[in-house]
Amino acid sequence: MEKAKISLLQLYTLMVLFGLGSSSLLGLGASAKQDAWIAILIGNIAGMVLLLLYGYIFKNYPDSSFIETVELVLGKIIGRVIAFLYIIYLLYKATLVLRDIMELILLYVLTATHMLVVGILAMTVVLYAIFLGIETICRFSQIAFITVPMKMLYVFGAIASGITDFNHLKPVLENGWMPVLNATFPLISSFPFGEMVVFLMVFPYVNKKEKAIKTGILAIITVGIVLTLITIGNIITIGPLMIELAIFPTIQTAKMINIMDFIQRIEGLSVITFLTCSMTKTIVYAYAASIGLNVFFKSKNYRYYIIPVFLVILLGSIYTEYNMTVHLFVGLRLVPFFVNTPFEVIIPLLLITVIIIKNFFKKRNQY
Amino acid sequence: MKKVSIFLFIIIITLSLTGCWGKKELDEISLISGLAIDPSEKGYLISVQVMVPGEITGETRSAASNARMFSEEGESIFQAIRKLTMKMPRKAYFTHLMVIIINEEVAKDNMLEIIDLCLRDTEIRPDVPIIISKDDMARDILKSVTHIENIPANKVKKTGTNMNENWTATKTITLLNLFNAMASDGVNPTLIGATVVGDEKEGETTKNVEDIESPAMIELRYFSVFKNNKLIGWLDEDESRGYSYLIGEIHSSIMTVPCDEYNTYNLEIYSFKTKEDVKIKEGKPVVYIDYYIVTNVGEIGCSINLKNMDEVKKLESIFEEEVIENSYYTIEQLQIKYQSDIVGFGEMIHRKEPKIWKALKEDWDSHFENLEVVIDAKVKIRRPGTIRGQIIDEIIK
Amino acid sequence: MRSFKDIFDSIKKQAQNNQNEEKKLLISKDLKKNINNIKDYLGSSTDLILREFIIGEKYRCALFIIDGLTNGVYIYDYLLKPLMVDVRNTKLSVEINSPQDLFKVLKDRVISLIDIKDDDDFYQLVDALLTGDSLLFVDGVAKAFIIETKGWQDRGVTEASSQMVVRGPKDSFNETLRTNTMLIRRRIKDPNLRIENKTIGTRSRTDVAIMYIKGIANDKVVEEIHERLDRIKIDAILESSYIEQLIQDNRFSPFPTISNTERPDSAAASLLSGFVVLLIDGTPYTLIVPGLFISLFHTAEDYYHRFFFSTMVRLVRSFVFFLALLTPSIYIAITTFHQEMLPTPLLISISNQREGIPFPAFIEALLMEMTFEILREAGIRMPRAIGSAITVVGGLVLGEAAVQAGIVSSVMVIVVSLTAISSLITPAYDLGISVRLLRFVFMFLSASFGLYGITIGLLFLLLHLCSLRSFGIPYLYPLAPFNFEAFKDSIIRQPLWKDWKRPNLVSHGNVRQKPPKIAAPKPPKSSKEKNR
């Protein structure tokens, strides 16, 4: 752990940027067709419930980072194994986000460049950010927060271009609730909302700890609203069918914007605004991973782990997945079930159960 | 700190040296403004129109044409385009493509390949208008040079937009619109047809620009009808008009009704709103369409007293009848002649009554034939232009 | 070969010697000895003037001054005249029996100058002499007077030369510390305004004044400044920039973390907001600590115009900062990587101009930017009479001719002139320099990676700016950490009547104005109402 203090506002901006990273780019809930936005709203509520769960863990161990908490709660052997698995989970998640960034850049910005080059450049920024520490990252997030309203501008831009058709949103709930719920669980509830589990590594830095969870809820609501707006914007501009097909539907929407033949062809700019959020997400994951390693090995300075984390994320993002098809399949189909659900729901629930039992015995011993 | 900064610096420097891969200087690319797809013996004949910047904006503009054409044959479209690229001195660059023109014969045969290629490509934008060449080769339309616009492809595009805004019978359909129509169950796509009017051979030369009255002009008039993603026919002028009413795509165009043998009443449409509703009658869906049209008086060919409220009402009802009749006629034609729902009644039912739609979805085309549509119209004349009274009456008197 | 360590050691030894010298050395009773000591110590410098005289036939005295540093009127009218002429004609009520008596009488009754003190330390005396004071020795007394007679030629208070305003006070600091403190004191008559002096530089013995308003300025910052100033071990301070470079937080940052001004009104405004001002003798540029990034975009004039206008101007400045930083790199990125971003007519037009240009866009841009830098440097260094002519003629002729010859495109000339003008618009000259430097980095990045490179560069820049601190205050305050009260006077400017609070991190969060109802001035009560 670093010696650092962050304010609630900084936590809020960091969480919002984290939540919007890469999730705002991909067509979330595309399988629910025109009801994708409902799926996101439901996912939003599920996300709040999850955050309350994490909040319970945090309340009981407000001064130790999550990796320590796991060790403290589950004991030396099981605790250390699960803690290590969490570090791997953080690194793996970082590789997925980095892969999204690379695919985005290779598709829309630098079509002829090697993936490695794009990855190294992105990771140098991440490396520099981790090196500077959480306080700087949080201040960075405050400035980068300006990209959030900019994302909404794309929706208004699309409406101003006169290319939107609100009929795309109809009929609401065509096939009942099932497809919507299928889209929500586990994909949307875990991505981006359940991923907030990583903030258990950040909460200990907050200066007003009792309000951290409230701020988190507020951030999740913001993320939900922005994501809903973006999704609605996508649906009314390019239609639910195209969203299901496109790799990055939001960029496809940005491509369609044309206001008076003057503001047009802005997808390059939109890539940049979306890149900032995804970058923040990678930074948070990589930072959490290096802090986690530091706590795990009980070393003095987390900065020892920057270079290893850098290499693992970079190479992992390139070599774990064979191509874009695999990436999307893994990212949107496998990961929610086999990675997100255990790490974001099952293990935290396990922890809570153990904590409750422990507290129960503690209380009994007191009397 | 120092070590890290040196490390970062070295990384960035080395990467920069390996960079520049995607680099393409402006004088190494050819901007393609138009793409025409024609059938050929080998498969497809692809023609692209390349803009020549020097002739468009340069200080030393010669009489030479503003654009060049390159053509190539191939078994698939992609293959032909690749072959073409090898032929051209510079790299073809499709991001500024303004129009895709598809030959009628190709459209009758297979449209899916074209849609797939264009949407998959990162350079072609989804808002490119698509046009079908009626009676002519697609490349001939691309070739015709016309007044005012420097680039022929731009001419085609602008004509489309202009007619869309000021004349009823056209609607620019983009790649994305086409895809959405094709992928949806409840609507069949339609595209605009373009023809060269006048002497085609003259149209190809720069003489076309030099003369005051150009011998060849591009005309975008008729809507095509698709069924099962294949072109099956064309709407005539009346049908096209009725179609435009039905889809509500009319902005500041005019409506004309004959009042006697030679003369007409003309109204200028100020706003045109369509309200759709679907109701279930005896287990069958009935589509209700209400027009609400606000107009200004454009030209009055016969004697009518616009100071009198009853006369105005009468004029309004004449137009109401005309619109309703025209719409019914179009629907009838679509149901009997083409059996293709290009208006999107299916989509309307889908949106309003998703449960009923599930049963109809599978065989919509045959259900469409028996669909009942009820049309109502309300025309409102807002103001009679700058003249209050009746000019013709004053003169005749 | 001498290793660095040896050199370092010798320097260390020297420093120790210097410290030894600073130990106290008492002067002797013997006047002759003292005179010789001073003469030996200062060498036979020609500006050292010694005047020996006798008071009351008995007591030998000696007066030392440094010519040019002293005020002649003081010396003749208030020092030499009373001592040599008036003494004879005056009847003193006190008996003078010994040199000690005389010494006391001189101080109490004869010398009619305000600042006079006695000292027996040789080095203190010499220091005082070299700063412009006069030394008066009396034979038989092991003490000497230090009489304040400073007075030298200075430039006078003239109009500011680099930070000009249309509306606002026209005076500016000059090279004399005392004048500068006077200029501030005249504006702030607050008893809490503190001036603390320090002498820095083993050889230059430069006076540095730390000014702040007690109760408003952050005590920790003041303490930190004292500490850092004490840490300086350098032989000479010739400009405030020396101090700036020696005490700033991040020495490798291209951005100035301490801002400066030559305007007394902005210095006063900074003091009132809780900043600390460092005045350095010998330069009109004063330092303002802590330096915030946002204050580089502020001018004194922002507060002298109405807030609508000031807000607009500030927004323009922030926008232009990016313009100055990024225009050439964006041009390179768009024309070599992302042609799809341009509307068709514009692309055709640019493409037509690029036709036949022998260089890639990057080289073209680099060439033109370098040319501009050369012209600019030449324009500054040239004798003033021809400097501006060279800039204009060189720029116009070179640009025009290069375009005509087809070596560069005319769009490139537009781009370069736009950046050139933009980089001059930022009020702080330091910022302009960093922007010029970074512009080349961004051009390099965009030539390699296009828009992606620019984004990466911007993220790096932002992270770097976020990591900077100036005397403990985050550099990007009030943007990050965000503070709404302070934000209202950052890239926008709130109306003056709403300006209730000072920036909370910098100052003690005091209230600048009471927030009462003065906010919206009410119309005067009309006479009718009164009569009622």
Tell me about this structure:
The complex is a heterotrimer of chains A (367), B (397) and C (532). Chain A contains 13 helices and two strands. The radius of gyration of chain A is 20 Å and the shape is globular. Chain A is mostly helical and 367 residues long. Chain A has a single domain (8-366), classed as Amino acid/polyamine transporter I, CATH 1.20.1740.10. With 397 residues, chain B is of the alpha/beta class. Chain B folds into two domains: 26-234, no CATH class; 237-397, GMP Synthetase, Chain A, domain 3. Chain B is built from 16 helices and 13 strands. Chain B has helices at residues 2-18, 53-57, 77-87, 104-109, 112-120, 138-143, 152-166, 175-183, 200-204, 207-210, 237-247, 309-338, 345-352, 354-361, 364-369, 391-396; strands at residues 29-39, 44-51, 67-74, 91-93, 99-103, 130-133, 192-198, 216-227, 230-234, 254-258, 264-281, 284-300, 372-383. In chain B, the strands form two sheets. In chain B, strands 1, 2, 3, 4, 5, 6, 7, 8 and 9 form a nine-stranded mixed sheet that branches. A four-stranded mixed sheet of chain B has the order 10-11-12-13, sandwiched between helices. In chain B, a hairpin with a 4-residue loop joins strand 1 (29-39) and strand 2. The longest helix of chain B has 30 residues, at 309-338. Chain B is globular and about 90 Å long. By secondary structure, chain C is an alpha+beta fold. Chain C has three domains: 22-147, no CATH class; 177-299, no CATH class; 307-467, no CATH class. Chain C has 17 helices and twelve strands. Chain C has helices at 4-21, 31-42, 72-89, 99-110, 122-130, 177-187, 219-231, 240-247, 264-272, 307-336, 344-354, 361-381, 384-404, 410-425, 429-467, 484-487, 527-531; strands spanning 48-55, 59-66, 116-119, 134-138, 144-147, 193-200, 206-213, 259-261, 276-280, 286-289, 469-470, 473-474. In chain C, the strands form three sheets. A five-stranded antiparallel sheet of chain C has the order 1-2-4-5-3, with helices on both faces. In chain C, strands 6-7-9-10-8 form a five-stranded antiparallel sheet, sandwiched between helices. A two-stranded antiparallel sheet of chain C has the order 11-12. In chain C, a hairpin with a 2-residue loop joins strand 11 and strand 12 (473-474). The longest helix of chain C has 39 residues, at 429-467. Chain C starts with a helix and ends with a helix. At the A-C interface, helix 5, helix 6 and helix 11 of A face helix 15 of C.
